[in-house]
Amino acid sequence: MSKISIAIDGPAAAGKSTVAKIIAEKLSYIYIDTGAMYRAITYKALQVNCELTDESALNDLLAQTKIDLLPGEKGQLVFLDGQEVTNEIRSAEVTNQVSIVAKHRLIREEMVKRQQQFGANGGVVMDGRDIGTHVLPHAEIKVFLLASVQERAERRYQENLEKGFPADLEMLIKEIAARDKLDSEREVAPLKKAEDAVEIDTTSLSIQEVVEKILVLVEERIGSY
Ligand code: CDP
Ligand code: CDP
């Protein structure tokens, strides 16, 4: 059976990584969380005190940086220069600054190159902001997931509670709205639905319902799996 590429884009907490992981597992495809790569270089830049607005310095740093995404028992593991940083890259500090790094053209060009290599053989579910528009423009299936800011902030609030780090809902709403704005308004490869992407508003859908909608698209494309 032919192995296709599936691009899943959308704003923060729209459910991209959760559904992408499930779809990849069902199809025995590889799953690539491209946001983790932007987070990893942001984390490193903060560690080495590299100025996040200095595109050229960040680009030099990225050139000397190895980022590996490997499957683990509970999902994707992220390695930065051989060291696991799966949890570290999810810190509030990284989350609130990653969009500053992700807006630089040189950084995006290098990341897109690396991401295209990961997806070169098909059989991939990749999630991010520009997968359908730039990384995998020929993906057989493109999905754009949406949900209201309130709903997305509540999802992150719930996640934080479960991890034992209660957050302030109003603060989460502000942070998500600010990141949406930076990601959607940047000049290079902004967060945008590809013309040929299927839009799914997940505001009142369960994870299972979203997965089922995407699996219908898969079946239409490759038959039963
Ligand atoms: O998990 P969450 O949706 O909060 O974010 P993420 O997917 O880990 O992405 C973190 C940030 O990386 C985004 O807010 C974007 O600034 C950037 N990003 C991007 O510019 N392009 C991508 N393909 C993926 C992420
Ligand atoms: O990857 P992205 O930032 O788009 O979102 P995520 O990390 O996959 O999902 C954010 C949270 O929302 C997770 O805790 C999911 O379990 C939850 N979620 C949900 O409650 N309902 C959905 N339809 C999708 C995700």
From TrEMBL:
Segments forming domain Cytidylate kinase: 6-219
Alphabetically ordered keywords of this record: ATP-binding, Cytoplasm, Kinase, Nucleotide-binding, Transferase
Primary location recorded for the protein, binned into one broad class: cytoplasm
Catalytic function, reaction form: dCMP + ATP = dCDP + ADP; CMP + ATP = CDP + ADP
Listed GO MF terms: kinase activity
Origin superkingdom: Bacteria
Residues annotated to bind ATP: 10-18
Database matches in Pfam families: Cytidylate_kin
EC number(s) per entry: 2.7.4.25
InterPro entries: Cytidylate_kin (IPR003136), Cytidylate_kinase_dom (IPR011994), P-loop_NTPase (IPR027417)
Location of the protein in the cell: Cytoplasm
SUPFAM superfamilies reported in the protein's UniProt record: P-loop containing nucleoside triphosphate hydrolases (SSF52540)
Family the UniProt entry places it in: Belongs to the cytidylate kinase family. Type 1 subfamily.
HAMAP family noted in UniProt: Cytidyl_kinase_type1 (MF_00238)
NCBIfam families: cmk
UniProt xrefs under PANTHER family: CYTIDYLATE KINASE, CYTIDYLATE KINASE/PANTOATE-BETA-ALANINE LIGASE
Protein name: Cytidylate kinase
The species this protein was found in: Robertmurraya beringensis
Lineage: Bacteria, Bacillati, Bacillota, Bacilli, Bacillales
Protein's gene: cmk
